[in-house]
């Protein structure tokens, strides 16, 4: 089986089990998605959604965030972790959006990553989920699943992004993000993967290695 054939089967199985793409962060517009994604760094989407439910009622525009008091915003987002840097970046980001883009969120990758606190992952979430521009988002789940499946040997998220862009058809880039995240949460869980329940195990080099090691330990025990 060629790598291309393997990728085709993996994509079909992911789609069969998880269906079309779905953004896990609640939002009503581009700037809400941008801020929610910034908050999601080192934090669960569920926690971010709890925080933004009240946050977006208090701050109803880019201007509100640009003019926010740092200490107050820190308290508002405290439970998402790393709240000092996140609050500082959100304020600076929104000030630049007002200054350079009339409060609108750009779709260009270079313009997005020039904003405070916005890396390629955050930029690609916005590009893919709001602007529907084919983009590959590499979070911890996508990184882990991609490596175990043998789709990349890299650890750097940017290198993984470009590896997946070469392997996966462009029209599947947005879908594969949320499908791999769903798989990482449900089956391919960090530190306790459910390999025996995994529909991708026949195509997973890392999973087969983990199962082999597990059997060795069981025999010794």
From TrEMBL:
Catalytic activity: 2'-deoxyribonucleotide-(2'-deoxyribose 5'-phosphate)-2'-deoxyribonucleotide-DNA = a 3'-end 2'-deoxyribonucleotide-(2,3-dehydro-2,3-deoxyribose 5'-phosphate)-DNA + a 5'-end 5'-phospho-2'-deoxyribonucleoside-DNA + H(+)
Residues that, per the record, bind [4Fe-4S] cluster: 188, 195, 198, 204
Cofactor names: [4Fe-4S] cluster
Sorted UniProt keywords: 4Fe-4S, DNA damage, DNA repair, DNA-binding, Endonuclease, Glycosidase, Hydrolase, Iron, Iron-sulfur, Lyase, Metal-binding, Nuclease
Enzyme class: lyase
Biological processes per GO annotation: base-excision repair, AP site formation
TM annotation in the entry: none
GO MF annotation list: 4 iron, 4 sulfur cluster binding; class I DNA-(apurinic or apyrimidinic site) endonuclease activity; DNA binding; DNA N-glycosylase activity; metal ion binding
E.C. code: 4.2.99.18
PROSITE patterns xrefs: ENDONUCLEASE_III_1 (PS00764)
Top-level taxon in the UniProt lineage: Bacteria
Family, similarity comment: Belongs to the Nth/MutY family.
NCBIfam families per the UniProt record, alphabetical: nth (TIGR01083)
Protein name stated in the entry: Endonuclease III
